[in-house]
Write a structure and sequence with these properties.
The chain has 354 residues and is an alpha+beta fold. It folds into 3 domains: 3-172, Immunoglobulin-like (Sandwich); 180-295, Immunoglobulin-like (Sandwich); 300-353. It has helices at residues 7-13, 297-344, 346-353; strands spanning 3-4, 15-17, 23-25, 31-39, 42-43, 49-53, 58-67, 73-84, 90-92, 106-108, 112-115, 119-128, 136-151, 157-172, 180-190, 200-209, 215-217, 219-224, 232-235, 239-242, 247-254, 261-269, 272-273, 286-294. Strands 1, 2, 6, 8, 9, 11, 13 and 14 form an 8-stranded mixed beta sheet that branches. A hairpin with a 5-residue loop joins strand 3 (23-25) and strand 4. 28% of the residues are buried. Keywords: Membrane, Signal, Transmembrane, Transmembrane helix. This is DUF916 domain-containing protein. Residues 28-47, 326-354 are annotated as: Disordered.
Length: 354
């Protein structure tokens, strides 16, 4: 059996929670631990470590690392940069990846912790903002982790990094530029051959934080035909947070869209501060539009069939009318011919009357 321990593998296999009061690490005899913001004497109830500092400034704070297990636990404690996952979550770079942003500004006083059963250690750390730090929001985390060995589906032994951390949000003073973008819009229309069922339209797009403030918002998608006819609108779930530089791939569906040939999709999102604090200047609405064809093939086929049946009925009716008219004309002509013959041969008529 081969052994593999690589950065990419660790990044994929890592189990992390932000924030999480307790983490159960599979395969470690129900070892559980937590990392929470803390004062010098213990946890203080803060949901995250949140600071606003000037470039060049610093601060000292604490995290409480608690062993909830009934046996000793040895953990690695380290900071690293945060990012927005493809699914919209908050995660940190792998433990063996060097921090380049806010994670590199954090220095923990201890990087290895040996915790007895059911014990807690309060660990001081410092945050020092570089003098040339860019204004806006920077995110990181302080993580307590433990490595375990596991076997993957191919029978290879791999190292899995089980991590629990406390979020760190740091706003560096200076000009704020809140902005979201909507790009890479893809449209897929599913049309049923049942003419009574209207098409199902799926829109997939990427929301990117192109500014320097962490933002959230609620995306909205609308499909409408020419002159705004047949409009359909859907509101999607609220996006709680996208970190600066982060992206999120989103999919939404619109049912029963009237097929009006040339359709227009409009996707928009009004950004809002993820932390609920006001932003100056206020973020502007992000908007993207795409046009696409939505041809009503089943309805056209039904109309064609109806038109064909109607044309056949009209043609049959016209033929019947013509035949009746021809028969009447023939009968009238025979009557006229008989009358004409009688006028020309009156003797025959008298003999016939005798």
């Amino acid at each position: 059996m081969r052994t593999r321990t690589a950065a990419a593998l660790l990044a994929v296999a890592a189990l992390i929670a932000f924030p999480a009061p307790v983490q159960a690490a599979p395969g470690t005899d129900s070892l559980t631990w937590s990392v929470t913001p803390s004062g010098p004497k213990g946890p203080d109830g803060r949901p995250a470590l949140d600071y606003k500092l000037d470039p060049g400034a610093g601060i000292t704070d604490h995290v409480a690392v608690t062993n909830h297990s009934k046996r000793p636990l040895t953990l690695r404690l380290y900071p690293n940069d945060a990012y927005t996952t493809a699914g919209g979550g908050f995660d940190l770079r792998a433990g063996n990846t060097e921090a380049t942003d806010a994670g590199s500004w954090i220095k923990v006083s201890r990087d290895r912790l040996a915790l007895p059963a059911s014990s807690r250690i309060v660990v001081p750390f410092t945050v020092t903002v570089p003098a040339n730090a860019t204004p806006g929001d920077h995110a990181a985390g302080v993580v307590a982790s433990i490595l375990t060995e596991a076997t993957d589906g191919d029978g290879n032994q791999v190292s899995v990094d089980h991590r629990v951390g406390a979020r760190v949000y740091l706003r560096v003073t200076g000009p704020l530029q809140p902005a979201l973008s909507i790009t890479d819009v893809e449209i897929n229309a599913a049309t049923s051959w049942n003419p009574l069922r209207l098409p199902h339209v799926t829109a997939t797009f990427t929301i990117g934080n192109t500014g320097n403030v962490r933002l959230g918002g609620r995306p909205t998608a609308r499909v409408e035909g020419p002159f705004g006819l047949g409009g359909r609108t859907t509101e999607m779930a609220v996006i709680p947070e996208i970190l600066p530089g982060g992206t999120l791939r989103v999919t939404t569906a619109l049912d029963a869209v009237p097929p009006l040939f040339r359709e227009r999709l409009t996707v928009d999102i009004t950004p809002g501060p993820a932390d609920g604090r006001s932003i100056d200047p206020a973020p502007v609405r992000a908007l993207a539009t795409r046009t696409f064809w939505l041809v009503p093939w089943p309805q056209l086929a039904l109309l064609t069939l109806v038109a064909a049946l109607l044309a056949a009925w009209l043609l049959t009716r016209r033929r019947r009318t013509r035949r009746m008219q021809a028969a009447l004309s023939a009968a009238e002509q025979r009557g006229r011919d008989q009358a004409s013959s009688a006028e020309k041969n009156p003797i025959l008529e008298k003999e016939g009357s005798k």
